[in-house]
């Protein structure tokens, strides 16, 4: 689902031709998607105005802005700064569209459930296929009314929001950490202290800590305890917040440096971040790259050949599953990726999608329930499918370093988190040829 902030509208595919030598660059990457969507919702429900500097202008952020406006909350976007008047929903009934934004869909659902009113929530066909039932079940146990309009446990549905007096919610974090974050965000809107009991562990727990840190920036108090999180009934207050760069987006450029034997320094992302995906540079170090981190910047220098011959859990940074799968095709020995079964429930089944597309490029792959093993082989310049998944599209582009002319269908999907991704590749020396339908 594309927004007016999208690029590459009407483009059927792109063909990529790499520069003749190593990738050398110092650059800044766009703002964090995680921070942008969390901060927009926190600002919208806060008492008083907020200023958010460094937002990511992507599809997901656009739908977050539009959702707040639908609820009667004034939002003004100027460049990469958003001014949000706050005050929470000005209506007691509204129909809200969340697009394909998983964070918006889960977080706003929970926050509206804790807000008196009748809320009809709709989503894109892609988001309708993604899991939300565990969160809705937890909200129903709190007395929130939920009526499904089509399929049970999926969008669209009607929420009968209410004032939650406090108490406890139980949720599993095994499918998505976003369910835990959603209840934390809503918990500060309760009348009395609220406890989120987490059952079965949390995939990507660092994102829950990012949620707690951002809540605190808007005046909330969150305490991590042995079996979950205690949230005080503080509500939120308006704030001025500067958002850091997106580590997930930076990873593609670090990967280009490692695979090309070049050097990339990202100037607005350093060791202070809580984002787990910056840990991907440690995987690149395992593949032979040299890594240097400072509090404000991170640099990766590639070696002559990527090293393989290891097993890597990506449990803490599972968004990098497609990235490592693509890089593994360029290594000197097989790489097995483990503990990422939950990425089968993201925008697409990312394990199956990467296996399928790598095989199209004649790279042997063995798929496992919780990951895949990639056996290195020079990829051929095939026509590959992005599966309408931004991370699949951006990762497949890495293969063009060894497969000049490799093409990717539906490249506009990158607008979900990185609208100018292919422009950035062009600035690094790639030839990016675009093809419209029938051309």
Task: Summarize the topology.
Elements: E1 11-17, E2 24-27, H1 33-45, E3 50-53, H2 59-70, E4 75-78, E5 81-84, E6 93-97, H3 102-113, E7 117-122, H4 125-129, H5 133-141, E8 145-148, E9 157-161, E10 167-173, H6 177-187, E11 194-202, H7 205-217, E12 222-225, E13 228-231, E14 240-242, H8 247-260, E15 263-266, H9 280-286, E16 290-293, E17 298-301, E18 310-313, H10 321-328, E19 335-338, H11 350-360, E20 365-368, E21 371-374, E22 383-385, H12 390-396, E23 406-409, H13 421-427, E24 431-436
Parallel strand pairs: 2-15, 3-14, 6-7, 10-11, 18-19, 22-23
Antiparallel strand pairs: 1-23, 1-24, 3-5, 4-5, 7-9, 8-9, 11-13, 12-13, 15-17, 16-17, 19-21, 20-21
Span between termini: 23 Å
The description of the largest β-sheet is: 4 strands, mixed
Q: How much helical structure, as a percent, in the residues?
A: 25-40%
Strand order of the largest sheet: 22-23-1-24
Any idea what the CATH architecture of the largest domain is? Alpha-beta prism
Structural class: alpha/beta
Radius of gyration of CA atoms, rounded to a whole number:
21 Å
CATH superfamily of the largest domain: Enolpyruvate transferase domain
Contiguous helical run count: 13
Shape, principal axes of CA atoms: globular
Task: Name the average pLDDT.
Answer: 96
**What's the total number of strands?**
24
CATH class of the largest domain: Alpha Beta
Our count of domains comes out at 2
CATH topology of the largest domain: UDP-n-acetylglucosamine1-carboxyvinyl-transferase, Chain
Instruction: Report the portion of residues in β strands.
Output: 25-35%
